[in-house]
Design goal:
single chain, 52 residues, mainly alpha, 2 helices
């Protein structure tokens, strides 16, 4: 008869827990708006560059 060995998960199996700083920047509306416009400008540069 074979025994099933139950092992605990390794620490690497769990996702990292965000710090207070990370939580703040992820939930800051002004920062999110700024990043939204930066991302849109990057996308527009790619699109405009491909059409010229």
């Amino acid at each position: 008869m074979t025994k099933n060995i139950v092992r605990a998960y390794y620490d690497e199996a769990y996702p990292p827990v965000p710090t207070k700083s990370v939580k703040f920047w992820r939930s800051n509306k002004i920062w999110q708006l700024f990043r939204f416009f930066v991302l849109n400008l990057k996308i527009m540069r790619i699109i405009v560059g491909g059409h010229s």
